[in-house]
């Protein structure tokens, strides 16, 4: 086999860790643990860079020794030197280095007991395949939403996680570590956003056919903007719900102020103001609403949203108009 210059260059790049470098440089900062926007994520990124730097330094030394062993002078080494080399390189150096890295890693762990109350509590229920989000008010009641997480910068936020069906995992890489949402259990995850911006979270535990189609948008606001957003989110919708009731949507979905019986699917009170439809699967446009209504089963296999392709076009049109108006 002949190696041209390109082959050789690629081989060298791979050898020098080019693959991770290319992968990391291509990371999208909205969903990257290495572009932290939260206190925990900053710790994770710090740990990663220190570990990576340590690994690269040790790799260079080991490869240097290997090259020296193969190409170096061919004569027996001084036995005393060899003994010392093994003692230092094989016992002392790994013990000290690993102890330091262990100490450094443990020092970045979050505190075990968090008894003080958080600034905001958000209830997250992982469903198949979307996220039920409830913002807790001071009186304990919740403002229902779905598939988007809005937070005020600087606040200590407590996510209360559960699932009614299978295990999912809730992860906002830019803010911190992930935590599983487990049926029959309530897990608590605390995160503290440190800068405003738009980010993305995802499910990171295989949960079924559309596991890869349950993402969510994350918006970190200034505190006053968050308060305004939450107030808007809490307000009921102003809409004519005739088409909604006629098509049977109200059996599963709630539009506060219009129809509040449905509790199976996402709350649709302000669905048109969300960034995406079907939990990060479609853009939020009238044509995507139409596609979702008539082809939900092929867009998101295994989801509980029925396909409404049997409805006449004018009823689909009326539903799209209603949903588009829910800002
Ligand atoms: Cu939910 Cu994977």
SSE layout:
Layout: H1 5-15, H2 18-25, H3 39-71, H4 79-107, E1 120-127, E2 130-136, E3 142-146, E4 148-152, E5 157-162, E6 168-171, E7 179-181, E8 187-191, E9 197-203, E10 215-221, H5 223-234, H6 242-246, E11 276-277, E12 282-283, H7 286-299, H8 313-324
Parallel strand pairs: 1-5, 4-10
Antiparallel strand pairs: 1-2, 2-3, 5-8, 6-7, 6-9, 9-10, 11-12
Helix pairs in contact: 7-8
Dinuclear copper ion (CUA) is lined by residues 126, 129, 168, 203, 205-207, 211, 214.
Structure explained in plain terms:
With 327 residues, this protein is an alpha+beta fold. It is 38% helix and 19% strand. The protein has a five-stranded mixed beta sheet. It is elongated and about 90 Å long. The structure holds dinuclear copper ion (CUA). Dinuclear copper ion is lined by residues 126, 129, 168, 203, 205-207, 211, 214.
């Amino acid at each position: 086999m002949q190696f041209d210059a390109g082959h050789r260059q690629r081989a060298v790049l791979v050898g020098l860790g080019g693959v991770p470098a290319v992968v990391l440089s291509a990371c999208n900062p909205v969903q990257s643990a290495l572009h932290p926007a939260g206190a925990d994520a900053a710790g994770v990124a710090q740990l990663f860079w220190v570990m990576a730097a340590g690994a690269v330094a040790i790799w260079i030394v080991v490869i240097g020794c290997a090259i020296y062993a193969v190409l170096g002078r061919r004569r027996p080494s001084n036995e005393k030197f060899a003994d010392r080399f093994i003692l230092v390189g094989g016992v002392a150096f790994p013990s000290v280095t690993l102890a330091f890295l262990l100490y450094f890693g443990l020092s970045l762990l979050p505190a075990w007991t968090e008894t003080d109350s958080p600034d905001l509590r958000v209830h997250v229920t992982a469903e198949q395949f979307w996220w039920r989000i409830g913002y807790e008010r001071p009186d304990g009641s919740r403002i229902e939403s779905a598939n988007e997480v809005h937070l005020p910068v600087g606040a200590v936020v407590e996510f209360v996680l559960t699932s009614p069906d299978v295990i999912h995992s809730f992860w906002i890489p830019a803010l911190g570590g992930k935590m599983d949402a487990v049926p029959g259990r309530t897990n608590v995850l605390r995160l503290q956003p440190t800068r405003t911006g738009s980010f993305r979270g995802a499910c990171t535990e295989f949960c079924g056919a559309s596991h890869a189609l349950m993402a969510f948008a994350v918006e970190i606001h200034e505190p006053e903007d968050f308060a305004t957003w939450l107030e808007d989110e809490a307000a009921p919708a102003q809409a004519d719900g005739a088409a909604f009731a006629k098509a049977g949507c109200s059996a599963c979905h709630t539009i506060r102020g219009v129809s509040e019986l449905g509790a199976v699917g996402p709350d649709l009170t302000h669905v048109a103001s969300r960034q995406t439809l079907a939990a990060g699967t479609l853009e939020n446009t009238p044509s995507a609403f139409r596609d979702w209504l008539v082809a939900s089963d092929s867009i998101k296999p295994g989801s509980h949203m029925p396909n409404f392709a049997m409805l006449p076009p004018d009823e689909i049109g009326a539903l799209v108009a209603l949903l588009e108006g829910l800002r």
